[in-house]
Write a structure and sequence with these properties.
This protein has 3 helices and 10 strands. Strand 7, helix 2 and strand 8 form a beta-alpha-beta unit. The longest helix has 12 residues. It is globular, with a radius of gyration of 16 Å.
């Protein structure tokens, strides 16, 4: 497995920007991460797109060979151990379109928490790169706020792909006082299987 940054110069936002976003700081954020980490347990590699300021890394309980979390607002980080075992951990401040991926099909789990992907230049987030990452993953976890238009318009194109099957759909209402009266309190999870999923 290899992940390479293609164009770091295109990243313009400072690390840690947006730390005051309530749905990423309260008790609800932790619940979302723990839930997603559960479904990554059979994945030798974990790839997270959109970790923002709270990557999935510390919530993983298994012993993956690598964990890569990508987000323009994440704090850059690298380590060679996780949960007491050798593991290449990288948090990369970049959009997912700026990365070259070299995973073996079926070797990784894909995590998309707080799904809200934006275009990169003239490229729509829904396209060959994202669909290839979804189709070749072992397991895909997508979580988003159904009341937010960008996510609500994109996620159906992912979960209806002929290359995936829905293992589970879970609707949650987070009783987090920080976000109780916002669209962020209602969350929807999809866990998707592909032809590479472990039965």
């Amino acid at each position: 497995m290899q992940v390479n940054l293609k164009d770091a110069a295109a990243v313009s936002e400072a690390p840690g920007a947006g730390k005051d976003i309530p749905h990423l700081a309260g008790i609800g954020a932790t619940m979302r991460q723990v839930f997603a980490a559960h479904f990554m347990r059979d994945c030798p590699h974990v790839l997270e797109i959109g970790g923002h300021i709270r990557p999935i890394t510390p919530y993983l309980t298994h012993h993956p060979l690598s964990v890569t979390s990508l987000d323009p607002k994440t704090e850059a980080y690298e380590a060679h151990e996780l949960n007491g075992k050798q593991c290449l951990v990288r948090h990369i401040q970049a959009k997912f379109q700026q990365i070259d991926y070299h995973y073996q099909p079926g070797s990784y789990g894909l995590v998309l928490l707080g799904y809200s992907l934006k275009p990169f230049g003239h490229k729509d987030p829904l396209g060959a790169l994202l669909f290839s990452l979804i189709d070749n993953a072992r397991t895909v976890v997508i979580e988003y706020a159904p009341e937010l238009e960008r996510a609500a318009s994109q996620v159906p194109h992912i979960v209806s792909r002929p290359t995936v099957t829905i293992r589970g759909q879970f609707d949650l209402r987070l009783h987090d006082p920080e976000i109780a009266d916002t669209p962020y309190a209602a969350r929807r999870f999809y866990v998707l299987d592909t032809r590479y999923s472990v039965s």
